[in-house]
Amino acid sequence: MPRVKGGPQTRRRRNRRLKLAKGQYGGKSKLFRTATESVDKGQAYAYAGRKHRKRDFRRLWITRISAAVKAHGLSYSKFMNALKNANVLLNRKMLSEMAIHDEAGFKSLTDMAKTNLGKAAA
C-alpha cells in the first residue's frame, strides 16, 4: 500500500483559512496559526453580533415608541398593556414606524389605548 500524502488538501485548507484572514493586520493575515486564531475569534464575534443586532433594534423601537407615547400623555408600559387589552397585534417595529411616519394613525392608537387603559385582557 503506497503512502498517501495530503499536500494538496492541506494547502487548499490553509489557503482557504488565509483568505478568510485577508485584511487582518500583520502576521494575522500571513501566518497560518495566528490567522486561524484571528478568523475563529472574528467568526465568534460575528455570530454574537448577529444576536446583538436583534437586541439593539428592539431597544431602538422601544425608545422611539416611548418618546412618541409620552407626547400623547401615556407611558410606554401602559400603552403596550392597553394595546394588548384592545387586541391590537402590532409588533414594536411597526409601532415605531407608525410613530415616525404616520402620526395620525399613531394618535388613533394612543386614543384607543387611553380608552382601554383600565380594562383587563379578555
From TrEMBL:
GO cellular-component term (any): ribosome
UniProt entry keywords in alphabetical sequence: Ribonucleoprotein, Ribosomal protein, RNA-binding, rRNA-binding
PROSITE patterns: RIBOSOMAL_L20 (PS00937)
Claim: Translocase is one of the keywords in the record: no
Biased composition (Basic residues): 10-20
InterPro entries named among the record's database cross-references: Ribosomal_bL20 (IPR005813), RIBOSOMAL_L20_CS (IPR049946), Ribosomal_protein_bL20_C (IPR035566)
SUPFAM superfamilies: Ribosomal protein L20
Residues covered by region (Disordered): 1-22
A Pfam family annotated for this UniProt entry: Ribosomal_L20
Chain segments annotated as transmembrane: none
Family: Belongs to the bacterial ribosomal protein bL20 family.
Function of the molecule: Binds directly to 23S ribosomal RNA and is necessary for the in vitro assembly process of the 50S ribosomal subunit. It is not involved in the protein synthesizing functions of that subunit.
UniProt-listed NCBIfam families: rplT_bact (TIGR01032)
Protein name: Large ribosomal subunit protein bL20
Gene: rplT
